[in-house]
Amino acid sequence: MNIYRYEENPLITPLDVVPYHDGYEVIGAFNGGVAKYGDETLLLLRVAEKPIAEHENEVVAPYFNVKEQKLERVSFDKNDPTYNFDDPRMIRHKDNLGGFIYLTSISYIRIARSKDGHNFTLDKEPFLYPFNEYQTFGIEDARVMQMEDTYYITFSAVSECGVADALVTTKDFKTYDYKGNIFAPENKDVLLFPEKINDKYYALHRPSAKNIGELDIWLASSPDLVNWGDHKRLIGVRQNSYDDGRVGGGCTPIKTEAGWLILYHGATKKHRYVMGAALLDLNDPSVVLKRTTEPFLEPVAEYEKNGFFGDVVFACGTVQEGDTLKMYYGVADTSMAGCEMKISDLLHHLERTSCLTK
Ligand code: MAN
């Protein structure tokens, strides 16, 4: 299937972002949600900032102190046998496998604006910055759904309580109304459908089963976009496939004549992230009509393969113009890239490579 990657890729890298905090460096400007606002394309970038260590053996972890409303840092010694520093994204306890204590960077959402969809200018201030006890380790991976003149923004709220999903609404991308956590931990990748279906709102979400179960995409419905129920497992991981480790919704569902087009990320157990697609029934999104057995986008470009966490393409939004779909995606947990494809090509790809197993 034909995908045109923008020649300017990567469109935004950490070097384009001035740190918001003194003594910090920007290590990521990625996984940006997408909105069309007036004549501009907005990317709601996840900016990750890391405290600069004072000496070679220091590992520093940031957290937002809610009471004091300021960012603080905790220092660790790389040689301390109590901790495991192998995963660059986090610090774990050694004796308790999987025992997580801190992230090595803090993320918040900053807006990049563009008139041509290729050249972006960054806002100086964050748009969404941690403000409550569910966000002490940051705000990550925003997704935007537009209904009339209101934009609904979902994001991961990360703290020692786990990763929850929160919702805010805005009309101007300057101020916002907080609607609370709409999914409890651990859950990620909430995508709101852009219209009611048979008088109900729908969302995709990805509970992160820790004990029994897999990292599958679920469907929920709601009367008001805030209270969610009727949870159904929708798109699961598949053994021996590009998505045998985890799946999660990527872009706001796109309405086509053939059904709701879902662009999702699938990762192997070794954390290679690609983009797959599925098609849901227009009148009943709990019915999966088709699902790709081959990804439509894989990390092949240098900027997709190498970075803070390589071999990752992670799309969080699109702009649709007729049959053309402009997709913006995070690469290697580091930068932002853009590409274009035809929706009709995606539907053919689904037709050609479809398999119905959930
Ligand atoms: C994973 C990665 C990190 C992220 C944490 C918390 O480890 O996606 O980038 O910060 O989860 O969400």
UniProtKB/TrEMBL annotation:
Claim: Plastid is one of the keywords in the record: no
UniProt superkingdom: Bacteria
Keywords attached to this entry: Glycosyltransferase, Transferase
GO molecular function: glycosyltransferase activity
Pfam families: Glyco_hydro_130
Cross-referenced InterPro entries: Glyco_hydro_beta-prop_sf, Mannoside_phosphorylase
Family to which this protein belongs: Belongs to the glycosyl hydrolase 130 family.
Protein name, as recorded: Glycosidase
